[in-house]
Design a protein that fits this description.
Layout lengths: L1 H44 L5 H166 L5 H24 L8 H15 L6 E4 L2 E5 L12 E5 L2 E4 L5 H8 L18 H13 L3 H5 L2 E4 L3 H8 L16 H4 L31 E7 L9 E2 L10 E4 L15 E4 L8 E2 L3 E4 L2
Parallel strand pairs: 3-7, 6-10
Antiparallel strand pairs: 1-4, 2-3, 4-11, 5-11, 6-8, 8-9
Length: 498
């Protein structure tokens, strides 16, 4: 502002000087004009005498005109300079106004900063007081914990003494058990030898009878005797084979028990879950409810098949593949973050590990079809019509968004469904073998395998972050076969070729 005032005063002084000069020149000009008029009056009186003076006056007038023009030009130049100065003054005024606004804003911010600092100081004082209180309480709790620690050490010393006594007793019992087991093995060996001798004796007697029959009826019943001989030999072969390798499983036929034992024996070598025999039947697949993926009701017939009790765990995956892709780590947790293509690689490696005699029987691992999965989830022929697999109360059978704590859980912890299958609802989505397509209404299908090609594969069952609507027995989900997600897992299925 002081610079502005000085600048204005300088301009005013310059303008005053110019005005004085112009006024003096105008006054001179007026005096000269008056003289010219006087001269002209005299010229009228005596023209001849004043010619010389008129000429001089004309010259003076021309000179004066030039001076006036020059002064007018100077005045115009001064006016233009004055306008420029006014523009500069306006710009200076604007800058000063902006500066004043900035200063006012800075002052307001300074006040706000001061208020904020005062608030922070108050908060710091409060936090210091709370820290001091916590420090005092921690000192008290540390003293209590030290006392409890001393008591626990005393109790541990007493328990260690009792454990040492129990260990001594256990070693004595273990020695007795070893002796008992050795005696039991001897008895079993004797019984097995007697059993094998009896089997061979029965076989020998049967063969001898067949030979006698063959000799007696050689002429009349040659063909009948030969067929009888082949039948008896085949019976002995089957009897010997199945008594050695199969054990009867309650609720299944002898042949079904044989297949289940083959599957479970091979799985036991790799710490796998056991298989369950699923009796086939007819059921209504799908639901006409409001689902993100269409699942219209239609009738389906499913043949007998086998399915593992639980999803494949991380321990099992590592035994076959050699690495663990899961986000949530744990040997007994279901393997997740695997794509459909990854699962096919796993199944291929698992089937290669079969002994040759099992491959000859046509027993191989695979993913369940969507129809098989839903049939097993609903309980098969033992279904009670529950919304979730095994119960209408999902807390009993499933790990979902409301009770899973944002993680997967060890397999087999909840209740099983009607067929003895665990975790069919929740924990992880389970891949199926089918490509996705909409169900065909009004057509009864037998063992549907899905379309021959497509863009997405089917997932079923919901996972640890699913809501209840996405985890019913009829809910469908889909994903690209190469997609990996930390909620996608799988379980194994199998079927014996006819």
């Amino acid at each position: 502002m002081p610079e502005y005032n000085q600048y204005i005063s300088q301009l005013e002084s310059i303008l005053e000087k110019d005005d004085q000069l112009i006024k003096e020149k105008i006054a001179n000009y007026e005096e000269k004009l008056q003289k010219i008029l006087e001269i002209r009056a005299e010229y009228k009186v005596n023209k001849d005498l004043l010619n010389d003076e008129i000429k001089e006056n004309v010259n003076q007038e021309t000179a004066l005109d030039e001076d006036i023009k020059r002064l007018l030009k100077q005045k115009e130049e001064e006016d233009s300079s004055y306008e420029q100065l006014e523009k500069q003054l306006r710009e200076v005024i604007r800058e000063e106004e902006q500066r004043s606004q900035i200063l006012s804003e800075l002052s307001e911010r300074k006040q706000q900063v001061l208020l904020h600092q005062e608030m922070k100081q108050e908060e710091l004082a409060k936090t210091r007081e709370s820290i001091d209180q916590l420090h005092n309480t921690q000192k008290e709790t540390i003293g209590d914990l030290q006392e409890q620690h001393n008591q626990i050490i005393k109790e541990l010393g007493e328990k260690s003494q009792t454990l040492s006594k129990r260990n001594r007793e256990f070693t004595a019992i273990k020695r007795g058990n070893k002796e008992f087991l050795s005696d039991l093995k001897l008895l079993l060996d004797k019984k097995q030898r007697k059993y094998t001798k009896w089997m061979w004796s029965v076989g020998g007697v049967a063969i001898g009878c067949c030979l006698l029959c063959l000799l007696v009826h050689l002429i009349f019943f040659y063909v009948l005797g030969a067929l009888l001989l082949l039948g008896i030999l085949f019976y002995l072969y089957i009897l010997r084979k199945y008594t050695v390798k199969a054990h009867w499983v309650p609720g299944n036929s002898y042949m079904e028990s044989y297949v289940i034992n083959i599957l479970n024996e091979d799985l036991a070598a790799y710490n796998f879950n056991q298989f369950k025999m699923i009796k086939g039947g007819q059921y209504t697949m799908g639901d006409d409810g409001d689902y993100p993926v269409k699942a219209q009701k239609h009738d389906v017939v499913v043949s007998d098949f086998y399915m593992s009790k639980c999803p494949v765990t991380q321990r099992q995956w590592k035994r076959i593949m050699g690495f663990n892709p899961s986000r949530f780590k744990g040997d007994d947790l279901p393997v997740e973050n695997v794509s459909w293509d990854d699962v096919q690689e796993f199944i291929t490696r698992l089937n290669v590990r079969f002994p040759s005699y099992r491959r000859k029987k046509g027993i191989t691992y695979r993913l369940p079809t969507e129809a098989e999965w839903e049939y097993a989830a609903k309980g098969g022929s033992l279904s009670k019509g529950s919304e979730f697999s095994g119960s209408d109360e999902y807390q009993k059978v499933a790990w979902l968004e409301s009770n899973a704590d944002n993680t997967t859980h060890s397999v087999g912890q909840n209740e099983a469904n009607e067929l003895g299958l665990f975790d069919m609802t929740g924990n992880v989505w389970e891949w199926c073998s089918d490509w996705y397509r909409d169900y065909e209404k009004g057509q009864k299908q037998t063992d549907p395998q899905g379309p021959a090609e497509g863009e997405f594969r089917i997932l079923r069952g919901g996972c640890w972050n699913s809501n209840t609507k996405d985890a019913t027995c009829a809910t469908r989900n889909l994903a690209a076969p190469q997609e990996r997600y930390y909620g996608n897992g799988f379980r194994l299925a199998s079927s014996k070729k006819k």
